[in-house]
Amino acid sequence: MQANPITDAEFAQFQRFIFDAAGISMADAKKALVTGRLGKRLAAHGLDTFGAYFKLLSGGQHPEEVQIAVDLLTTNETYFFREIKHFEFMRTQVLAARSRTQPYRVWSAASSSGEEAYSMAMVLADCMQTTPWEILGTDISTRVIEGARRALYSMERGRHIPPDYLRRFCRKGGGQYEGHLLVDGMLRNKVMFRHLNLNTPLPQLGQFDMVFLRNVMIYFNNETKREVVARVISTIKPGGYFCIGHSESLNDISSAVQMVAPSIYQKPL
Questions:
Q1: Residues 6 or more apart from 124 whose CB is under 8 A from it?
Q2: Domain count, the chain
Q3: What is the pTM assigned to this prediction?
Q4: What domain range is 107 assigned to?
Q5: Residues 6+ apart with CB under 8 A from 137
Q6: Least crowded by CB within 10 Å, which of 30, 33, 95, 178?
C-alpha cells in the first residue's frame, strides 16, 4: 500500500509528538525525514495516511509503537573519539584522580549507539591503576541502546580510535563480521547502558565525576535546554565536570557550572 504524502497538518502533529516525547524541536525542513523514517511503519500497519498513523500512536493501545516512532525520529550519528579534546581533558582528570579509593564515575548522557561511552572506557582502562571506575550510557532510543550493548561497529566508525587503543581494546572481525570491530569484553562489562529520557525527571543515578551531554541541546528550545541541563548538572559532584558539544553553549541556559575551557565546565566545590 502506497501512503499518501504527508500534509502540513499531519507533519505538525508529529512535530508536537516528538517535542512532547523527547523535547526535540523539529524544524519544518524535516518533513522529508519524517516521511522517510515513518513510511514503513504505515505500511506495517496497513495505513495509507500519516494522520491515521498518528491516531494509532495517540490511542494509548500501542506503547511499543510509540517507542518505535521515537527511535526512528531521533538522530543517532556518532563515532569513536568524536571531539577529541574532551577525551584529552578527561585523561588529565582521570590521571589526577587515580589514587582515589572511590569509583570514578562517568555518564554519557546521550550515548546513542555507544561509541562515546566506549571511548570513555578506553581512556579509563588505560589510565586507572587500582582505582575502580564505572560508566553509564543512556539514550532515549531503545534501538540504539540495544546496539550499544552488542558493541559491534564498522571499522569506519572506529577510524579515530588511537592505534594503541584499537589494538588493546578492540577485536577485528572476520568472516561475516569482516570490516567490523568488537569492543573487548572487559570494557563491555564495565559500561552499563539503559534507556532514559532526559526530558523527564531523572531516576536515581547517583553522583558523577564527569558528564558528557554533547550535540543534543541543538535539538531543544531554550526552555527545554534549561530544564535538561539543570537535571543533568544535579547529578555532578561538586568539583566535577560537564562537557557539551563544541557547537553548543550554556549562555542564558545555566550558571550552575563555570567554564574552564571551550565547551568544558566545572561545578563549583
A1: 94, 104, 106, 133, 135, 190
A2: 2
A3: 0.90
A4: 84-266
A5: 107, 108, 111, 114, 116, 117, 145, 148, 191, 192, 193, 194
A6: 178
